[in-house]
Hints:
This protein is mainly β. It has one domain. Helices cover 3% and strands 35% of the residues. It contains one helix and six strands. The chain has one helix spanning 57-60, and strands spanning 2-8, 11-18, 84-90, 97-105, 111-119, 125-131. It is elongated and about 70 Å long. The two termini are 34 Å apart.
Amino acid sequence: METRDVxxxxxxxxxxxNRIPRDGEMGAFGFDKRLFRQIYKGVAPEFAxxxxxxxxxxxxxxxxxxxxxxxxxxxxxxxxxxxxxxxKFFTPDGNDDYKIVVEGNKQSGDDRAIRIQFQGKRCTxxxxxxxxxxx
Length: 135
């Protein structure tokens, strides 16, 4: 079996597996038909990620439920000269457990991920200072 990494620009997005039987006969394999005929509309247009601002009284009193499962999304964080970046977001309506996942790539191309769990209270402002440590 042969595998190859798949890259989009400099980001590794997956692997391709190439499996060829010794006798070269592929008729015995039962492939999922979805593998071969997928229609894509091309590159998805960029969109703005909107999150409610519960510091506004009218938003906090809104009767519309907030059941977001993605609380904050920013694919292009900007860090200052101390390799620090502040993020702010509000939690949704539920008093639930949440997981913060921060993913990125080092200049060498290696992936890096941090996962933090926290207990969220209804419509609470979360402020965090991300600091990049070179290692």
